[in-house]
Amino acid sequence: xxxxxxxxxxxxxxxxxxxxxxxxxxxxxxxxxxxxxxxxxxxxxxxxxxxxxxxxxxxxxxxxxxxxxxxxxxxxxxxxxxxxxxxxxxxxxxxxxxxxxxxxxxxxxxxxxxxxxxxxxxxxxxxxxxxxxxxxxxxxxxxxxxxxxxxxxxxxxxxxxxxxxxxxxxxxxxxxxxxxxxxxxxxxxxxxxxxxxxxxxxxxxxxxxxxxxxxxxxxxxxxxxxxxxxxxxxxxxxxxxxxxxxxxxxxxxxxxxxx
Length: 259
Prior knowledge:
Layout: E1 4-6, E2 12-17, E3 28-34, E4 39-42, E5 53-58, E6 64-68, E7 73-79, E8 85-91, E9 100-105, E10 111-115, E11 120-124, E12 130-135, E13 141-147, E14 152-157, E15 167-172, E16 175-179, E17 189-194, E18 200-205, E19 213-222, E20 225-245, E21 252-258
Antiparallel strand pairs: 1-2, 2-3, 3-4, 5-6, 6-7, 7-8, 9-10, 10-11, 11-12, 13-14, 14-15, 15-16, 17-18, 18-19, 19-20, 20-21
């Protein structure tokens, strides 16, 4: 599992790839999971062949969006019934996409896309135009979260092959600052989620190698200061791909994989 998103009915959508090693992925799909019955249903999207699927999100109208990394697309899916959706291309190479990994929306439904291949963030306006919203950092951005309460875009930038630690970005009106990773703030930020009060939840891994052993820490921040911290002891090699709150903001969910 990789990306997580909840619709307004509290149904969980999960992007799936049949191998953690991207070179071996031969099939990708999307599950809907009813967390009351724990029944998973694969979404049927006629006419679309998915590449490697990463992050996902809903807009305010209930349309579902998923980052197709290998096909350089953001795919928009509108559900016509519980298990079937129709697809259209929301953004692609002509929008400047290069290995997109995540998408999120502000309160006006402007879309923000992490563009790992070009190490920038693309903004797609409600008028359909695309532009570079943020750029100029060392590592690719993989995960995004938009704080609609305070109009802040957060991004986690990291590179598993680099000895340089990852960092957390805070972007306001296109002005990008790096959240200091001292004073107890996250050192290797990975996944991001926003609470209903505008608190930022950040997962931090204990190393930046391909195997993240030891522990995973969830930091709760407002907006630069850590107000709480939870550590999860990991037996073996475990990584977190995504975190997301349910529709009522009562529970935080995480997708995890064994490396």
